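Reopening this one. Same input as before:
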Amino acid sequence: MDASRGFAPIESGDARLLVLGSLPGQKSLSDQQYYAHPQNVFWPIMRELFGVDGSYEERCEGLVANRVALWDVLQASVRPGSLDADIRQDTALVNDFETFLGTHVKIELIAFNGKKAEQLFHRMASLTCIDHLRLVGLPSTSPAFAAMSYAGKLDVWRTGLAPVSQVDD
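Same output, byte for byte:
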């Protein structure tokens, strides 16, 4: 089985927040869009928190305008299907966070979309440049994480991102 390859980050040099998923699922890969599964609530949450709406391109532009960067922990990995549990860690390649964070010096918060993204980051990204950053684990927006309602997820995301989403400079 071939490795799934992630996407380039959605970002600008003045980003204050970096949201990290694990690796795009099958629907996202086929559509070449972050969080393309129609039941994934990532984009509805971004609409509520940052007012991003419209086409995929408009939503991405909205994230950039709100100084939100979006990426995945993994650059590539073999993963049959879309479940994070199926990611084969022996084939996983982590993205270059040392370089990314070195060129995005205004990032103050890294938010993980789900436990797997957070676990992979801590296990695979050996970083010396994150001491000044706040890291927050958030509930997965995936439909596979059905233990929490949309309202519950939105509330936790709002609380977790509030220090960044409300600051202007």
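So the earlier flakiness isn't reproducible anymore. For the record, The helical segments are 26-31, 42-50, 56-65, 97-103, 115-124, 150-165.
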